[in-house]
């Protein structure tokens, strides 16, 4: 455990920073805890920071101490609408690496304009009906293809990279597109915690050799249509703003942006 005191000449805030655990720092002012900082290590080895502080001085002191203690690069995530928090991180030297938009996606086919017929030769296997072995193979191949191009770090944050190529999938969360006896595309849909009537589309991916043939659109049409028949009016989806194809797909079916999150980095 280590401590550092900060008493700026013209600043009324005298803040003591203490590293109370390997991944946690406290900011104390006049015997009150006025801020906490944390680190978390993602499966891909990246270190993410978070700071919750009562005022800017506490944030700055926590950031200064944590950055001095930790190796770079360092990352953090902020709500795109929280301009004060984004400014705090930028003041500490962080810059924006990527923005991920949250979309609200209608399920009614009369709104989306999505038909029910998949491309010729393609069959959609409903959520929960996919065979585990071929699904695992497809997910592994797609990860390898993405990693070889833009990198898996550019995928939605809800779909984290895994160390050492490890892969696991729950067939109850996936619809797949099959061509012959081969799976060529997948869509992951989950229930939002504490909101049992809400669904989140976490990932749509198609093998590189089968892209631009309407497979992703057919998967989306199938899943949204199924949700609509169950009385669910909308689903949410997260899309990296640099993924032009995904942005076009969702905005083309009437999805609207409702929020965004920023990933910032200090190198």
Please sum up the structure shown.
This protein has 267 residues and is of the alpha+beta class. Helices cover 25% and strands 39% of the residues. It has two domains: 2-71, no CATH class; 102-260, Gcn5-related N-acetyltransferase (GNAT) (Aminopeptidase).
Mean pLDDT: 89
* Helix-strand sequence: EEEEEHEHEHEHEEEHEHE
Broad shape: elongated
Binned, the helix content reads 25-40%
Known CATH architecture of the largest domain? 3-Layer(aba) Sandwich
What is the CATH top level name of the largest domain? Alpha Beta
Q: In total, how many beta strands?
A: 13
- Count of individual helical segments: 6
What is the CATH topology descriptor of the largest domain? Aminopeptidase
Q: Which sheet architecture does the biggest sheet show?
A: 13 strands, mixed
The CATH superfamily of the largest domain turns out to be Gcn5-related N-acetyltransferase (GNAT)
Structural class: alpha+beta
What topology, given as strand order, has the largest sheet? 1-2-3-4-5-6-13-7-12-11-10-9-8
Mind telling me the C-alpha Rg? Answer: 22 Å
The proportion of strand residues reads 35-45%
Q: Could you tell me how far the N terminus lies from the C terminus, measured between alpha carbons in angstroms?
A: 26 Å
Poorly predicted runs of 5 or more residues: none
């Amino acid at each position: 455990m280590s401590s550092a005191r900060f008493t700026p000449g013209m600043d009324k805030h005298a803040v003591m920073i203490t590293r109370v655990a390997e991944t946690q720092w406290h900011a104390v002012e006049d015997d009150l805890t006025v801020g906490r900082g944390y680190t978390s290590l993602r499966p891909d080895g990246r270190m993410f920071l978070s700071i919750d502080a009562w005022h800017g001085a506490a944030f700055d002191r926590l950031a200064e101490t944590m950055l001095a203690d930790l190796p770079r690069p360092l990352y953090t995530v902020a709500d795109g609408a929280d301009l004060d928090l984004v400014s705090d991180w930028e003041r500490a030297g962080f810059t924006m690496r990527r923005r991920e938009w949250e979309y609200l996606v209608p399920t009614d086919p009369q709104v989306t304009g999505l038909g029910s017929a998949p491309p010729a030769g393609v069959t959609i296997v409903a959520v929960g009906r996919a065979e585990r072995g071929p699904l695992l193979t497809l997910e592994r191949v797609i990860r390898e293809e993405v990693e070889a191009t833009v990198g898996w770090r550019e995928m939605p944050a809800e779909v984290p990279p895994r160390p050492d190529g490890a892969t696991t999938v729950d067939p109850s969360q996936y619809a797949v597109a099959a061509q012959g006896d081969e799976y060529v595309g997948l869509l992951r849909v989950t229930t939002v915690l504490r909101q049992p009537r809400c669904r989140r589309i976490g990932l749509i991916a198609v093998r590189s050799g089968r892209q631009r043939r309407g497979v992703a659109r057919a998967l989306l049409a199938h899943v949204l249509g199924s949700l609509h028949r169950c009385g669910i009016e909308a689903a949410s989806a997260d899309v990296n703003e640099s993924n032009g194809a995904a942005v076009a797909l969702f905005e083309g079916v009437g999805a609207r942006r409702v929020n965004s999150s920023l990933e910032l980095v200090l190198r």
